[in-house]
Write a structure and sequence with these properties.
Elements (H helix, E strand, L loop, with lengths): L2 H10 L2 E8 L2 E9 L5 E9 L7
Antiparallel strand pairs: 1-2, 2-3
């Protein structure tokens, strides 16, 4: 996981969805709108004990 891209995506996120939970990892999907108003999304994998700040 690239922490800088995750932090950037969290700042502009319109929604955060837990996509999959598997063992000790969680896949989250962040969705947002770009400057033209087009919807964008990206998935990130978080492992046990990783912290993210909102």
């Amino acid at each position: 996981m690239d922490e800088k891209s995750l932090q950037k995506a969290l700042r502009v996120a319109e929604s955060i969805k837990i996509d999959e939970i598997s063992g000790r990892k969680v896949t989250i999907e962040l969705s947002w709108f770009d400057v033209k108003g087009d919807p964008k999304s990206e998935k990130f994998v978080l492992f046990e004990r990783e912290l993210i700040e909102f």
